[in-house]
Amino acid sequence: MQDANKTIVTEFILLGFSNFVTFQNILFNVAVLAYVVCIFGNIAIIILVRHDPSLHTPMYFFITTFAVLEIMFVSVTIPKLLALLVQTSKTISMLGCFVQMYALHALGETECFLFALMALDRYLAINNPLRYAAIMTKTFCYLLAVCPWIAGFIISFIPTICTVLLEYCGPNEINQFFCDLSPLQNLACSNPFFSNLATQIAAVLSVVFPFITIVALYTHIINTVMKIGSTEGKQKAFSTCSSHLIVACLFYCTIIAVYIRPKGSQNDKFLALMYIVVTPPLNPFIYTLRNREVKNSARKLIRHLLWEVSLS
Questions:
Q1: Which domains are seen in the chain, by residue range?
Q2: Digit-coded pLDDT (tens) for 297-310
Q3: What's residue 1's pLDDT?
Q4: CA distance 55 to 52
Q5: How far apart are the first and last CA of the chain?
Q6: What is the pTM (predicted TM-score) of this model?
Q7: What is the DSSP letter of 275?
Q8: How far apart, in Å, are the Cα atoms of 53 and each of 118, 284, 300?
């Protein structure tokens, strides 16, 4: 009789920012701007690297990989946020919710592993410059670049499938603007113990381990740079990894703020905006404004385009 009275959940309601009517109008404009800037900014980086042979190095190859990843990440989250802000209906199908949740975590975890890989690249370039070119061959770079994607999509699959297999028969309101593991686990009628455990293990493997790796590698990098005699040499060494370090710090600070702090407050949604809406459009600017080679490449490409326009 108890089972017969259970309601079968076929869709979820994303509450988003429905309680903040005035803020929704502002957020819509900010989110549109962030999405456009992020897409075109990362496409610009990809075009610059492909167009300029001087940028055909392992470091810029990984930066273009990161640019592709950023485009995919914002495309999973921001369009749905925009739809929630303008539509009366706040529902999302069960399948759509699970797909978004998996894509979000798979891409986010891939990003963590890619940050560690980029730190390894900088470590080899600064700590082992004589063997760097021999180690980081084109084939080896391609193999390395595939690894974060495989690791991210496999590791995130386990907690996702454990969450999908939970029974949902009661409340279906998610106090967030996207589908996430923790809110869904809290809505489950069945015991989410194994789903929670799988989520925690995945977090350690895909977030904590890459973070420790980045810290360890940059500790060695800083030690090596400090031993360089000339000030110019130190500045050149730091300039090659400062952009990556800033982007990684922004990413991890927002991730820690959202997922490590206690859950359940309205602030969760606003903190989530930081790594979904605010930081992605900043990343292309960080990689270009702090990088002389990219800025020079951009100037050359603009001059080339203007020259072609003048001839036509």
A1: 11-311 (1.20.1070.10)
A2: 878 878 877 777 77
A3: 42
A4: 6
A5: 78
A6: 0.92
A7: I
A8: 20, 20, 12
Q: How much is the pLDDT for 262?
A: 59
Q: CA 243: distance to chain centroid?
A: 15
Asked if 14 and 84 touch (Cβ cutoff 8 Å), the reply is: yes
**Residue 24: Cβ-neighbour burial (10 angstroms; 0-12, 13-18, 19+):** middle
CB 28 within 8 A of CB 190: no
Average pLDDT, the chain: 90
Q: How far apart are CA 212 and CA 205, in angstroms?
A: 11
pLDDT of 4: 53
Please give the distance of CA 103 from its chain centroid, rounded to a whole number.
11
Q: CA dist 210 to 206, 252, 306, Å?
A: 6, 10, 43
Nearest to 206 by CA among 111, 279, 97: 111
Structure tokens at 258: 């959202």
Left (φ > 0), alpha (ψ -120 to 50) or beta: where does 84 sit?
alpha
Q: What is the DSSP string of 68-98?
A: HHHHHHHHHHHHHHHHHHH-S--EEEHHHHH
Mean pLDDT of 111-140: 95
The two structure tokens encoding residue 160: 């996702």
C-alpha 29/C-alpha 148 separation (Å) is 33
Residue 13's DSSP bridge partners are 91, 173
Please provide the DSSP assignment of 193-209 as one string: HHHHHHHHHHHIIIIIH
